[in-house]
Specification:
By secondary structure, the protein is mainly alpha-helical. It has one domain. It starts with a helix and ends with a helix. It is elongated, with a radius of gyration of 19 Å. 85% of the residues lie in helices and 0% in strands.
């Protein structure tokens, strides 16, 4: 019979993977919860090395989630103010336009704010594209991390 705690842990880990491509869903948080639900309540211990590695990967996912877009905006030349405002607008537009709202909100906001701060259209567009690439790259990195956490967890618990 399959252990209920194992099923709950795997469901949380799968939710982490889904959350990595859906905005405003804490992918790393779900993955971390899945690992620790099993670590605390599962029938077999994970072992300190496995638990530490999975925890570190999940925390890394949380960090990637929160800093991907703003770091890309800064690397593209946008100010901290522009990056923060673009993040807020993207989050608000999530509820208006769905997941597309984040990209439209962030790119449009970076572009508009850069123009209003005196950048030419080409520079504003380049900075907006950098920011969009950061947001999409962050989602891809989260998907890789949460997928790796899931596979490593299943191998550690089911195979060994």
């Amino acid at each position: 019979m399959v252990e209920v705690v194992l099923v709950v842990a795997i469901v949380l880990l799968l939710a982490g993977m889904v959350g990595s491509v859906l905005p405003a869903v804490p992918a790393g948080g779900f993955s971390l919860a899945g690992v620790w639900v099993y670590a605390l309540f599962g029938s077999e211990p994970l072992g300190p090395l496995t638990l530490g590695a999975l925890t570190l990967a999940a925390v890394g996912t949380v960090v990637v989630d929160h800093v991907g877009g703003p770091v890309a905006a800064r690397l593209g030349g946008s100010s901290n103010r522009t990056a923060v405002i673009a993040g807020v607008v993207g989050f608000v537009l999530l509820f208006v336009l769905g997941p597309v709202g984040i990209i439209v909100g962030i790119v449009g906001t970076v572009f508009a704010l850069e123009l209003s701060e005196g950048a030419d259209a080409e520079t504003a567009a380049r900075r907006a594209v950098y920011t969009a690439a950061g947001v999409l790259g962050s989602a891809f990195a989260q998907l890789l991390l949460t997928g790796t956490i899931l596979v490593a967890f299943v191998v550690a618990v089911v195979v060994f």
